[in-house]
Amino acid sequence: MAQVAHSWTYVRPSQVTSTADGSLVGLETSGGRTARGTQAHPRFFSGFLTDPRIASAGLLAVADVAATRYYQPTLRNSLDPVVTGNGDRLRFESFSGCCGVYARLDVLRDGLDGGDIGHGTTNVDVNDPLRLALSRIAASDPLHLRVGPDELAVTTLDGPLVEKKVPLPQRWLRGFAEAQVIASAFELRAEVPGGDAVRFLRSLPTRGRVADLWVVPAGRTLRTTSRPAPGAVCLPGPARLAALERVLRHARALRLYGPAVTSGSAPVAGAWEVALPGMRLTVMLSPQVSRGFSGEGSVLESLATPEAETDADLISVLLAWEPRIDVGDLAVQAGLTTERVRAALAQLGTAGRVGYDAAEAAYFHRELPYRVGRTELHNPRLRDARALVGAGAVTVDGDTATVRSRDSVYLVNLSGKVMGCTCAWWAGHRGGRGPCKHVLAVRMTIRGDATDDC
Predict the structure, then answer these.
(1) What is the CATH number of domain 3-168?
(2) Which residues form the SWIM-type domain (predicted)?
């Protein structure tokens, strides 16, 4: 697994302190992008939370996912959550160490009392003393939240700093990109009231080896089944929903999102959203416990279009930290079709520059504060496909294409709705994890893509 060294530098550790007006949660920030450019310690918010106990529980849920490996749990890997200020809300995001669970807490305007919300993205320090202090926040305690250093700390940045160094797996970055593109195909499949949601979630098996489940609406509640059906949401590994337990007592509703499925569908990703007063907590699960988002290949079709990179450069100039990106408006501003805008957003997603909110069925602008290389480095199938096209390895003849790769010859069937291939990748996944490099190469050849940069 490719890894790069990543360092977070904070003015001081995040902490909860007592003040004359109650308690103060000071979340310290590391380097990140803002509306005013790159800053070492950006400040996004200073004000009160309307429901301190719920907000604290939501933050802890996001931190739980960041500190957990749900697959091969003996291997520890903890990454500080990402926070984005979108002008009208704060979004806290994390990804599990195994790349199979994504979590996001959206603190909406109704969840914040006073204080302007900035624009930008950075990491926030989450340490064990902070977690303990957050778990002790009472409902009656006034709680002031500060995201970023206070004025005094800003003036003394030449003092001692707190530094964390962690290995940052490239597949973790790819997972962030894949999760957003996968979520863009989700629709609301079920919604149940808070009380029924609590009873259902607490009835799920969480110990031992649990077969993949599917969840379908059943009146005011939900029920599980062992087989997919239209309208069902996949639930692979119920124990991976453990982070939701932090906020269940405050749930107003539980909403389930997923792609369209049929009675013969293979396991798919799905999202579970707990609606809270002024907030939303979303947990998204990969199709299998042992299967991270990083290898799903959902972005490859969009990235393989010849104009995606150029379009992405244009679209990136038009983004302004919007909480909801309107694809139609972007298409008008850029003079592009909506299909090309969506492909450009997928391209931007590979660099962590957009996320997707299933609750609002819209992308949002953010800039992951990590060093990200070229798209091809994170998508070897795309890189290999371009190399095959550049080498003239593809021959198209009617409904069949021939791809020569080293000493092997692969046949790609062009007659069906989905291109099939005779390679081992297709035999193993049947298109369920995106196209193989041979299918990508055939698509590029049929379109006549240029290969000068291969």
Answers:
(1) 3.10.150
(2) 410-447
